[in-house]
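Entry 14. Ran structure prediction on the chain below.
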Amino acid sequence: MLSSIRRIIYSRVGVIVTFGILIVIAIAFAAGDVTGMASSGGGLFGKPLASVDGQSITAEELRKRAQDELRAARQRQPDIDMAQFVAQGGVESLVTRALSGLSLDTFGQDQGMRVSRALVGSELRNIPAFAGPTGQFDQRAYEQLLAQQGLTDAQVQADIARETMAQFLMVPTVGAGQVPQQVALPYASLLLERRAGQVALIPYAAMAGGAAPSDAEIRQFYQKNVARYTIPERRVMRYAIVGPQQVAASVAPSDAEIAQAYNAARATYAAREQRDVAVVTVLDQKAAQALADKVKAGTPIAAAARAAGLKARTIARAERAALAAQASPAVADALFAAPKGGVVGPVRGAIGFVVGKVDGVTQVPGKTLAQARDEIAATLRTQKANDAIGRIRDKVDDSLADNANINEVVADQKLTAQTTAPLLATGVDPSRPAAQPDPALAPIVQAGFAAEEGDTPTTVPLGNDGSFAIVGLDRIVRAAPIPLAQVRDKVVADWRTDRARTAVRAAARTIVAKVNAGTPLAAALAQSGVKGPPVQTVDATRSQIDPQRPNPVLALLFAMRPGTARMLESPEAQGMLIARLERVTPGDAAKQPAAVAATRADLGRVVGREYAEQFARAITAFQGARRNQGAIDQLKKDLVGGGAQ
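Output, structure tokens:
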């Protein structure tokens, strides 16, 4: 609903009342990433791009951050390159976020706010990327990741402190989401506005055919559209996998190990008794006694508990030790001493008094060593494999930390190295377009495209069994066009399609001009001589536009003036659509409080971001932030010219 409002509102009163809401920008700092910088904040190296209160943002810092952002962007759009990142405003966004972060940090300190080292340490330990195998903060993993990213502990801690300071200042602002009813009313009315019109399709197939292109036309079309026939950058990764298969020969458990494991877990394999029980905890002993008497008299324990405003808890196949831990040893002893169907209690539990009933008794037979052998052997094999893989990974990490290359690591650990074909970032091999990318190679390809030439190989996890791969970037195959001779048939087909589209668009422009001059749409179509489907009528309200997948015809109708016609390409690229808006019926939400309430809720979800953006801009200006636009422009040129990959 709100996306429709923000995208296609043209009401003057709407613009006047809440113009700020219409220009909401989803800035990263309002969502939590305020600084966007892993910077020392001192500006001690590189050319200053911007500064705040004596602290500088350098070109070197922004260059590294831009490369990091590009890697992250490739997770969503694998074929994006640095030139596209820069063209889409990536560098300007980084500068803005960095300035906002520094400004908020210095402003907070000027107001006497401080971020303690203890809080920074707590935040650091909660970052999932620094967790080890146990799920807890791992100093070694932390140091390895910093080394891979070229960061220092001081930089990271300073960045966390800056982020935290920004959160202190921004969270209350983002949380401001109240929108008055009179502000929401015009927008709710716009959602109820109804528009009716006509739509006609001129299919590209209507202009198909014609003479074959000459060789000169084919060459010219190929050169003009060479990007269509260019294979994007590909990368070749050299890798070695370490998993259970690679260590299988060394992890078979011996008879002695199996016997030792059996003896250590003898209680697990001994015959034992399990019980299904229902228990109710009552704080008052007298009330517990009354409940026990009622159950002993024949009332089901669940019903008796409900009558007392309580709830019976059922525990299936409970063992004595587990039940003692959940309730208390006294409760477990009483329930295991009672027969099936027996009622016990009240017995003092960990909290209050427990009344319980034994619903079932199961005798679990024990297992001899021979019976448990296969189970124990499988468990030991898995444990030993995990340990062996972990030892290899430790040795590999040590070697990589010493700048060993992948060939040296593979030889040292007696592994088998493999080399991928030149692959796209999606894992597709352009030389085999019909073949599906191997899902098992996805982490390896991702690591290869995150690396730069000359980088030290890295390790990437492959599964829950501890498997990992050692991955090195072997070489980069730069983007290059396919020779014309190899794609001639496709070029000819594209040329024919392009000629048909050009003719259809020319016909559509002529028809639109006639309609805008007063000719009815059906008559203008007939005069053009173009064959297509019959003219269709459209009648809809603005609220029918899906904000996630908007219908382009409806969106166009709600962006037109009555009595006018416009054209656009059909969503399926089948031809050109011509739409004419016949009439507009204004909406009135004054008598529909539900519509106004829904609009208020939608606006409230984004108005906090608008407040946050304006607050950050005000702080940035107040702190005297300055930009060196010449240095920023030079950085963008350098990134596109020398770091486009």
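Residues 1-46 have pLDDT under 50 and may be disordered. Will compare against last week's run tomorrow.
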